[in-house]
Design brief:
The protein is α/β, with parallel strands linked by helices and about 575 residues long. Among the domains are: about 150-285; about 460-525, no CATH class; about 535-565, no CATH class. A hairpin with a 6-residue loop joins strand 31 and strand 32. Helix 1 (about 5-15) runs parallel beside helix 8. The longest helix has 17 residues, at about 395-410. It starts with 5 loop residues before the first helix and ends with a helix.
Length: about 575
């Protein structure tokens, strides 16, 4: 078939001429990264040049282009107050979500002609700052949840992030089909859980990590099919165990009865003790189920992949948190994609590149918030459109002629194939999701061109010391809901909300004493970085790919050694 972009294809093929595996230096971090023959074949097949930055940086750039955990109360020019994912200093105009999605909003009104003499990213920045965005993103099936972001089919949730089918949940991130829980991350089909990460099908599981099908489990790590266990690690099908010691039911109940988790000082003391235990417990390099030639962690039913948190993926590399994706590279937070690259927060797409939060699109590039569009370049907010550049309509012939020229120019200037730079993000670095996965200091972020937002601790916000919050849950009255407390870690002001207090009373667990965003970032740390590194198995010295850093004290085991020493 004749090429629609012959100049670009000729220039790109020339770049790949004679290309062999080699080591590159990341232009952003100055660290080295290896480009394999697999990489060369994959990027060339997707018709983009090889990356100039390391895999970690590619993920960081994409994360900097989506909202983080914080939400803000914004007052619009015409008067109404809305909950917004954009901080008050963001340059993009915002509209209430229902208005943005209505027929009254026409993003084509903001279209502008492309200037071939000006850098694409310079034009994009001006264009992006003119096109309104929805104040918050959540699907129309979500009910009674104004403070929920990237949430689908949920009900009565508060400050949740990227959740689906949740109900009565607060401060949850990437949780699916969970109920009546608070302070959870990466939790699936679980209920009545607190302060835990990476749970699957658990009930009344608190302060725990990497547990499957557990009931009434507290302070436990990597346990499966267990119930009534406290402070345990790497157990299977056990009951009435305390710090991995088998007890009778009566003995177990007596020990647990002596631990009053409704007292914050008791919780803090046990958290420190449990961390010391976990630091000595065996850790499995990665969790890989029913997969072939798979490198990474949390991989289910995958084939020929490298990444983290993937289900039913084939020939996908440098990826994080996705399902049903094929033949793609550098994708994150994605669902049902094929032949995509440099893409974040998108679903149901084919041959989309450098794309942010789009759905049901084919062959779109450098675009954001598009739905059911085809053959568009550099567009924002369009629905059911074809052959548009910077939201301006072209004929099919005009479109391909312009796109061929602009992609060729971008390639020549080293722009094409690069994700949007930090400087054009509508989010400050510390209000983007990059801050959760790749935290950095203000000076470092600004050096990369990113914006930085000064949170309330640097402004005049009246808040009292968290020491005025009672340590014991039974001493906490409804009056606590009226107070504003100062986080001792971040200095930011925060409140206790009614759904949170109600669940803590149900669980009999003391209220937290730091800002919700601090708690969420700590849970993200528990999951370890989303970048793979090579380490040796502590038992057999086999080199394995893992996300657990070498600085972490736990002994690391490959899958076979873990099966032998822990489960055997």
């Amino acid at each position: 078939m004749q090429s629609k972009t012959p100049q670009f294809d000729y220039a790109l093929d020339a770049l790949y001429q004679g290309m062999t595996p080699h080591v590159r230096t990341c232009v952003e971090t100055r660290t080295s990264f290896f480009v394999s023959q697999r990489d060369i074949d994959a990027y060339r097949a997707l018709r983009i040049p090889l990356p100039t930055v390391a895999p970690m940086v590619r993920l960081r750039r994409m994360r900097a282009a989506v909202a983080g955990f914080d939400l803000f109360r914004r007052t619009l020019l015409d008067g109404p107050s809305v909950v917004s994912m954009y901080d008050p200093e963001s340059s993009v105009p915002i509209l209430p979500a229902n208005e943005w999605h209505s027929d009254r909003f026409d993003p084509m009104k903001f279209g502008c002609a492309y200037d071939l003499s000006v850098s694409f990213f310079d034009q994009w920045q001006i264009f992006s700052n003119a096109v309104p965005r929805p104040a918050i993103i959540q699907d129309l099936k979500t009910e009674n949840s104004p403070w929920a972001l990237y949430t689908a089919s949920s009900k009565n949730v508060y400050f949740t992030y990227a959740g689906m089918d949740e109900e009565n949940v607060s401060y949850a991130d990437f949780s699916i089909a969970s109920r009546d829980s608070v302070d959870i991350s990466y939790v699936y089909r679980s209920a009545h859980c607190y302060h835990s990460v990476l749970l699957n099908a658990c009930l009344r599981t608190h302060f725990s990590e990497q547990c499957n099908r557990c009931i009434d489990v507290i302070f436990s790590l990597a346990c499966s099919d267990c119930s009534d266990c406290f402070g345990c690690t790497n157990l299977r099908r056990k009951k009435f165990c305390f710090l991995n010691e088998q007890l009778t039911e009566e003995e177990y109940r007596e020990r647990c009865k002596a631990i009053d988790l409704s007292d914050a000082s008791v919780v803090e003391a046990w958290e420190k003790k449990i961390q010391e235990i976990w630091n000595k417990a065996y850790r499995k390099a990665g969790t890989i189920y029913q997969s072939e030639r798979a490198i990474g962690d949390e991989l289910w039913s995958c084939k020929d992949v490298e990444g983290i948190s993937m289900t039913n993926a084939e020939r996908v590399y440098y990826a994080f948190t996705l399902m049903d994706v094929k033949d793609s590279v550098d994708v994150a937070l994605a669902l049902q994609l094929e032949r995509c690259a440099n893409l974040v927060g998108s679903q149901k797409g084919y041959e989309n590149k450098m794309v942010n939060t789009c759905e049901g699109c084919i062959d779109i590039e450098y675009s954001e918030l598009l739905a059911s569009c085809e053959h568009c370049f550099g567009c924002i907010g369009l629905k059911y459109k074809k052959y548009c550049v910077l939201n301006q309509q072209y004929t099919e012939e005009e479109y391909w002629k312009l796109v061929d020229q602009l992609k060729t120019d971008m390639l020549a200037h080293g722009e094409y194939g690069e994700f949007f730079p930090y400087r054009v993000s509508p989010w400050a670095y510390n209000t983007s999701h990059a801050d959760a996965q790749f935290p950095m200091e203000e000076k470092e972020a600004r050096a990369l061109g990113a914006r930085w937002y000064a949170f309330a601790q640097e402004r005049e916000v009246q808040a009292q010391s968290v020491d005025t919050l009672p340590l014991r849950l039974k001493d906490t009255t409804e009056e606590a809901l009226k107070e504003v407390y100062r986080c001792p870690v971040s200095g930011r002001a925060f409140r206790i909300v009614k759904p949170e207090l109600d669940l803590h009373r149900e669980f009999g667990i003391a209220l937290p004493r730091v800002h919700p965003t601090v708690r969420r970032k700590e849970r993200i740390k528990q999951c370890f970085p989303i970048v793979l590194q090579e380490r040796a198995c502590s038992a057999c010295s086999t080199i394995v790919a893992t996300r657990i850093p070498a600085t972490y004290p736990s002994p690391l085991l490959c899958e076979s050694c873990y099966e032998e020493r822990v489960l055997g």
